[in-house]
Amino acid sequence: MSAAPCAQEQPRGSGERQPLVARPRGPRRRWRRTAAAAVLLVEMLERAAFFGITSNLVLYLNSLNFNWEGGQASRATLIFLGASYLLAPVGGWLADVYLGRFLTISLSLVLYLATSGLLLATITDDGRKSFCGEIPLFPLEPACPSADCPSSWSSPYCATTLYLVLLLLALAASSVRSNLTSFGADQVMDLGRDATRRFFNWFYWSINLGAVLSLLVVAFIEQNVSFLWGYSIIVGLVGLAFFLFLFATPVFITKPPTGSQVSSMLKLAFQNCCPQHSSRDTEGAHLLPDQRSLQWGPSPQEDMANFQVLVKLLPVMVTLVPYWMVYFQMQSTYVLQGLHLQIPNIFQTNPTDSSSSLSSGKSYYRIPEAWLLLANVVVILVLVPVKDHLIDPLLLRCKLLLPSALQMMALGMFFGFTSIIAAGVLEKERLKYIAANHTVPQLIGQDLYYAAPLSIWWQIPQYLLIGISEIFASITGLEFAYSEAPRSMQGAIMGIFFCLSGVGSLLGSGLVALLSLPGGWMYCPKDFGNINNCQMDLYFFLLAGIQAVTVVLFLWIAGRYERTRQDPASQSSSSRVRG
């Protein structure tokens, strides 16, 4: 746009003198952009594979191949999602200390390819028998009306093998996520801050484009054709990502491992907790400037300043954990709820088996339940550029006050609260039909579900609301963590941000496990895979209550953080280390 904003503030840290860097021109500049484009393409393919697994993992474990109950399948999905974020610091630490980002990403993609191949092997009969043994036959049935129904299994079939494969897959995905972001930023760093900011925008877009590819193609094939074909595509996507990453090696900028500040932060935390045992460790803090210049790495004063910034940032990021508990319901209990709503047909196909249709001899492809995730993705793809190119510049030109990052994060948490409330209200209405014995049998793949005669389109509001919340809470949270972190700790704090989001997913899984005990709201052993005897609406309302309380706590912590940032003494101590 030709018109510049009327009153544009200087970016944080702009008061310090920046070193003059000769920016590449001509062919070198094109190489940088080619390298960044290769990173974006690899990220899109990897995310397409990841969402291809998570979008229908509940359906896969709930199918006749494994016969897991609804609560068990949702819990496994939440554990996988949580581990894929919780293990993010592991890959970052390996890259910082031992391997470097390029080698870590390459080895992680190899592990990704191997574990996705193992998951593909569990689809075939011979593969399941080799890894898991014979499966006990417990088909899906409607809710049992009598009181002497058999109880559910405490340990689902093939649980050990599947959890091991999913955890290794989560380790690979988290290592790629934690390193590919900063590795891509390294490719354009010498092109200026604007190039780095634009890279992060396109990086987030590539994630969502991968999600669109996965949900439109892979999820449809998994639900309506077979998981064998769907998971074969996933293995192909990972293999293609690995090939492209290696093919682009000549244009990549690679950096050696530079070490990690984890040990310094742990040492300072120990000193603050037990000062009487750490007097000898603080001698380095009194070194003369000439003596400090001979030391490798950050000085003790810089370590202390970094530690103080970390102490201020952690409460803000920790209070986002309940939001992540709500956010990851989108790929677990929301999916489970959708399987028990009436899913419309798309078009008719000629069945090879006349028994595949419930009434006539005709068979239909059904809209994949995972397609409702597209509502979340479309909201992001539309609103992010609208906000970036229209709303924010308009507010700046009109000299209106832009909300702070913390205020936007609080707004995102509010939208997450409204999403889980909408899910609870819908589930309450669904259970009314179940109580009146108004159910519709529907065949999804090879599995029979007894659904309420409510259209699955009623789930669209909760998906739209969680998508809006992601724009304000997740994207702004990433920007906040990156911009507020000291330059020497940006990788570590980004890893902590991803790790805490994984903690939210695991806490959601733990809450499901707790409520699945006898007497709990999610305890419904008579359903054999259905959730018609559960009280999942109360689970949703409980999450909404936790989120509401946390929003109030977050606003209080955010206010304290803003006041601390505006303190002159705090600004002078942190401006020397902030990137």
From TrEMBL:
GO biological process annotation, one example: positive regulation of nucleotide-binding oligomerization domain containing 2 signaling pathway
Parts of the chain that traverse the membrane: 35-61, 73-95, 102-123, 161-180, 201-221, 227-253, 309-327, 364-384, 405-426, 463-482, 494-518, 538-558
UniProt main location, coarse: membrane
Compartments it resides in: Endosome membrane; Lysosome membrane
Superkingdom in the source lineage: Eukaryota
GO cellular component, one term: endosome membrane
Keywords: Endosome, Glycoprotein, Immunity, Innate immunity, Lysosome, Membrane, Peptide transport, Protein transport, Symport, Transmembrane, Transmembrane helix, Transport
SUPFAM superfamilies: MFS general substrate transporter
Summary of the function given for this chain in its UniProt record: Proton-coupled amino-acid transporter that transports free histidine and certain di- and tripeptides, and is involved in innate immune response. Also able to transport carnosine. Involved in the detection of microbial pathogens by toll-like receptors (TLRs) and NOD-like receptors (NLRs), probably by mediating transport of bacterial peptidoglycans across the endolysosomal membrane: catalyzes the transport of certain bacterial peptidoglycans, such as muramyl dipeptide (MDP), the NOD2 ligand.
UniProt protein name: Solute carrier family 15 member 3
Organism: Cricetulus griseus (Chinese hamster)
